[in-house]
Amino acid sequence: MKRILISCPGTSDPVRGEHDGPMLHILRRYRPELALQILSPEMRGNEQRDGRFEKTRAWIAAHWEGDCPAFRYLDLSGTEVHDMDALERPLREAMAAQSGEFPEAEILVNVTSGTPQMQIVLSQLAIDTRYRARAVQVLNFERRSGTSMRTNTRDYDTELELECNEDEQPDAPNRCVEPQLYALARAHTRTQILQLLESRDFEALETLQDRLPEELGALALHLAARSRLDGQEARRRASQVKGLPFQ
Predict the structure, then answer these.
(1) Beta partners for 70?
(2) Residues 84-88: contacts with CB under 8 Å, at least 24 apart
(3) Mind listing the pLDDT tens digit for each residue in 39-62?
(4) Does residue 98 contact residue 122 with C-beta atoms inside 8 Å?
């Protein structure tokens, strides 16, 4: 598994105004092997009513020469998708689960689809140094606030929208961009961590434990206890370090 897409489809997905919605455009341009679709109650209702995402997957399989990702679904029914505090846990767990199952895969994070609160939480996860993640933004084909009809209408026709999709043309522009803001934030955190390691300032590194992968965070706690000459605590923390390629 080389690439995974994590996306919260919204009212521009899968196709809007005869152009790819953000989710489909990222699939088109990056061709990940797996796409995790995190569905709000509204989007789950749309899928149950007309099967738009499964129809999209079938359409990709028929038109992209077998280059079709597997689709997985996470149902957020019961979660208030306009509440960032309510969203943070399930979205972080989803990111951690995919990262843990496919540790070598790069995770593409769709930061354009979904509610504004979903976009904010996913943006925070995209700069989290615990994950091999890249934020991907998709520019509106209209280059302004969208005026075309959204996909949450009762008469939305998935098959017709897919067949009339202008982004399927070979000369269609690539509207995916990777905002440098995210890359710079990740690079800053990584530099900070590396500087603390090089100076062996493990007690300062301990304060950044929540920005490290779980196994490295546990190792940071152990090293901080050692630097304080607290042998008992260092041994206790050493017993909690799992998943490293050495004893």
Answers:
(1) 34
(2) 84/117, 84/120, 84/121, 87/117, 87/118, 87/121, 88/121
(3) 999 999 999 999 999 999 999 999
(4) no
pTM: 0.80
Give the pLDDT of residue 191.
85
Q: Please give the Cα distance from 113 to 11 (Å, whole number).
A: 8
* Residue 74, CA distances (Å) to 98, 106, 124 in order: 12, 19, 19
Percentage of the chain exceeding pLDDT 90: 68
Report the C-alpha gap between 123 and 135 in whole angstroms: 7
Those residues of the chain that have pLDDT short of 50 are none
Angle CA(175)–CA(180)–CA(185) in degrees, nearest 5? 140
- Which residues does 11 contact at the CB level (< 8 Å), separation at least 6? 150, 151, 152
**CA-closest candidate to residue 111, choices 103, 122, 100, 102:** 122
Backbone dihedral angles phi then psi of residue 3, each to the nearest 5 degrees? -140, 145
